[in-house]
Design a protein that fits this description.
heterodimer; A: alpha/beta; UDP-N-acetylmuramoyl-L-alanine:D-glutamate ligase; Protein-Tyrosine Phosphatase, Chain A; 2 domains; 6-stranded mixed β-sheet; 32% helix; B: alpha/beta; Rossmann fold; 9-stranded mixed β-sheet; two-stranded antiparallel ribbon; 7 helices; 11 strands; 30% helix; globular
């Protein structure tokens, strides 16, 4: 679909808008933020992850007149969408390798963000733990820094400012970092995390009891609360609302099928897989790998993921590129069984919980099979 | 305590040269050596450390422009890789690593001196080469068809001291005709990331060179072979 470039601007006019971007966690953080800002009234949002300008236009048109809009934006489209929507807040989650055969390399993307944000009258909410994000956000005046954590270090060992080395040191549960040659370093965060609690800039501690699994979603909630705060939402008003979210665009939902309780996780890149391992329960697990256009045609990244956390539990694999995964697991010392299809994987596991981690097109296909595609 | 008899595999500068699953080559070599009962010591040497000159296998991987330039400069200043190459140590150089072991390469629109360990020089192509790569390997190496994935903007020209690694069947490689290069115990390739995943025979060649063991015990390559067959069938069909 080709849309009138003015259409998005037209639909965005007279709304207070926040854009959410980053490699991982966009859809979940957008949902958390939209629900948090919902304290103020109806919110327009592309809640199903359609994160290109056509998806934004369609979400805004469908929502009718709303005072607020929270939009998930593909990392590469941030300049375009920012120009069209004139947001009040931009949230930057993280930048790591993702589908490198078609995506811009990480340093190029950080520069694109930095150049896009420079001199803009925008409040930026940014992850203080990701050097690439910090550098990108530092071209603006007003930033709320959130200690949202970083699980994947291997795309930010080289300083984006000067080419020097980034040094990291573990300190009181978080990782401090600085460039060894220039002034780039971890800014003092305004928002921090302590287990399941988020501490706001006033020092108030908010116990965030999410229905969504994993530490990473507490970090996503902190980002969401920081964005909502810029619209005047108090964290204590938003926290009870975000606790009620149980599923985000088909992720995390438990679907009953043939006596199995199947829970779906989407993981699209190495950092996303590490986060998924952090979230799954100790149950049989099915890994599904495709390499279609939306996944990226290159499966090399499988060797960036350490699958060792899965040792000792029943592991099944399937998908169009299951053989790439088979080699990876063999080398990783993870025993597994290859099955021809998702349906056969379900029947091959005993009744009870089955955790499923799939990459993008594999995830969508399974959702269709489970009749859950929206 | 170091095991003096262990096979030492060095991944050169993973802080600079590491994209696209490059760790895979280290993991696969170590795994295949272990399966043969060989003691293995895998060493990751960061760019702020000295590169040991006495290891058995050195792996150089892919990287973006700025890290590639930095890696070439630090390797030249360090001198360890040159000493290793001069005494015939095994080197597998992939993508950006392949370019920087040559005489010169282009990054950020400038030409930089490489390490001149391999008689090639690299330039920028008009288009980026992205996709499946397959080629008939030089008969002197006795390997089956090379299969891999390439993602690079470079074009490489071989001098008389280097031989092409393969004749391109699918993809671009050096120039659309040849792919990679080799001389002595140094192999360079544009098949990026975990090239050994699809080419276990290449992994075993490196292990034979490094250990001097002419006949390595066969290992179960079911999954490697399934993957090879699938990828070669896919490029044939395309």
């Amino acid at each position: 679909m080709v849309i009138d470039p003015d259409l998005l601007a037209h639909l965005a006019a007279r709304r207070q808008i926040a854009l959410i971007s980053g490699t991982n966690g966009k859809t979940t953080t957008t949902r958390l933020t939209a629900v948090a800002v919902g304290v103020l009234g109806p919110v327009a949002s592309n809640s199903l992850g359609a994160n290109l300008p056509t998806g934004h236009a369609s979400a805004l048109a469908k929502a009718g007149a709303t005072a607020h809009a929270i939009l998930e934006v593909d990392e590469h489209y941030l300049p375009h969408v920012l120009a069209a929507t004139q947001p009040r807040v931009v949230a930057l989650l993280n930048l790591t390798r993702d589908q490198l055969d078609r995506a811009k390399e990480v340093a190029m993307l950080a520069r694109l963000w930095r150049d896009t944000l420079r001199g803009q009258p925008i409040h930026v909410v940014a992850n203080a733990d990701d050097p690439m994000v910090v550098w990108a956000a530092s071209s603006t005046e007003r930033v709320s820094w959130v200690a949202a954590g970083q699980r994947w270090f291997d795309d930010s060992w080289v300083c984006p400012e000067c080419g020097g080395s980034i040094r990291r040191e573990r300190r009181n549960g978080s990782v401090d970092w600085c460039c060894t040659t220039c002034a780039l370093r971890r800014p003092t965060p305004h928002w921090t995390l302590h287990g399941n609690a988020v501490v706001d800039p006033r020092g108030m501690c908010h116990d965030v009891k999410l229905s969504l699994p994993g530490e990473i979603n507490v970090a996503n909630a902190a980002m969401a609360l920081a964005v909502a705060a810029e619209f005047g939402v108090r964290p204590e008003d938003a926290v009870p609302r975000i606790a009620e979210i149980t599923s985000v665009a088909g992720r995390y939902t438990i679907v009953e099928r043939a006596g199995r309780a199947i829970r779906l996780f989407l993981a699209k890149n190495p950092a996303g897989w590490l986060e998924a391992f952090d979230m799954v329960d100790p149950a049989p697990i099915l890994l599904v790998i495709n390499a279609r256009q939306p996944d990226g045609f290159d499966t090399s990244w499988l060797f960036d993921v350490d699958f060792a956390p899965l040792r000792g539990r029943p592991v099944l694999i399937t998908g169009e590129r299951a053989y790439d995964l088979g080699v990876r697991l063999k080398v990783n010392g993870v025993a597994f069984t290859h099955v021809p299809s998702f349906a056969e994987a379900v029947m091959a596991t005993p009744p009870g919980r089955l955790e499923v981690i799939a990459n993008y097109s594999a995830f969508q296909k399974i959702r269709v099979e489970l009749d859950r595609a929206e | 305590m170091r095991n003096e008899s262990a096979l030492r595999i060095v991944w050169v500068y993973p802080d600079l040269l590491s994209t696209y699953g490059d760790r895979g080559n280290l993991l696969i070599l170590a795994h295949r050596a272990s399966l043969r009962g060989l003691a293995v010591e895998s060493v990751e040497v960061r760019s702020d450390q000295n590169l040991p000159a006495e290891a058995d296998i050195y792996l150089l991987a892919g990287g973006e422009d700025a890290p590639q330039v930095l890696a070439a400069q630090r390797l030249a200043a360090d001198g360890g890789l040159r000493l290793a190459a001069e005494r015939g140590a095994v080197i597998l150089a992939v993508c950006a690593g392949y370019q920087l072991v040559g005489g010169s390469f282009v990054a950020n629109a400038r030409m930089y001196a490489g390490l001149s360990l391999l008689d090639i020089r690299s330039d920028r192509g008009l288009t980026r080469a992205v996709g499946e790569l397959a080629g008939e390997v030089d008969v002197n190496l006795g390997l089956p068809m090379l299969t891999g994935f390439e993602n690079h903007g470079g074009r490489s020209i071989l001098g008389p001291e280097a031989r092409p690694l393969a004749r391109v069947v699918v993809g671009v490689g050096n120039d659309g005709r040849t792919e990679g290069a080799w001389a002595g115990h140094l192999i360079g390739t544009y098949a990026h990331g975990p090239v050994l995943s699809r080419n276990p025979a290449l992994a075993d060649l490196l292990l034979r060179w490094a250990t001097g063991i002419e006949f390595l015990a066969p290992v179960d390559d079911t999954w490697h072979e399934r993957l090879r067959a699938e990828r070669l069938a896919a490029v044939k069909a395309a």
